[in-house]
Write a structure and sequence with these properties.
Blueprint: H1 2-6, E1 11-14, H2 30-38, E2 45-48, E3 50-51, H3 53-56, H4 60-66, E4 77-78, H5 81-87
Helix pairs in contact: 2-4
Length: 99
């Protein structure tokens, strides 16, 4: 990250199919990562990728706190249940359940 910023990178995108589960296997979490990265020196911004509602809810309070930092874009892509239904191979082409 420091090398990217040192080379003039102005935007760093943290992306995954579900970035909300970042660090669960390591005893860490996305809000902690954002706080650490936003504390680095340099002129850059962080953009958070997509996450599922199930991974957002446990970290939502801390995530919103980390979004207060001026280096973090105030944008969050949370998949809708209907979108998840269409994408789910297990449900096939079935009509999405009522939300």
């Amino acid at each position: 990250m420091e090398k990217l910023v040192g080379r003039g990178c102005a935007e760093v995108r943290l992306a995954a199919q579900d970035i909300g589960i970042y660090g669960q296997d390591l005893g860490a979490d996305l809000p902690g990562l954002l706080l650490r990265l936003s504390g680095l020196d340099g002129d850059f911004r962080l953009r958070v990728g997509m996450m599922n509602p199930e991974s957002l809810l446990p970290i939502m309070g801390r995530l919103m706190d980390s979004f207060k930092h001026p280096k973090v874009f105030k944008f969050l892509h949370v998949r809708s249940r209907a979108e998840m239904t269409v994408c789910s191979a297990g449900w096939g082409a079935a009509t999405p359940p009522a939300i």
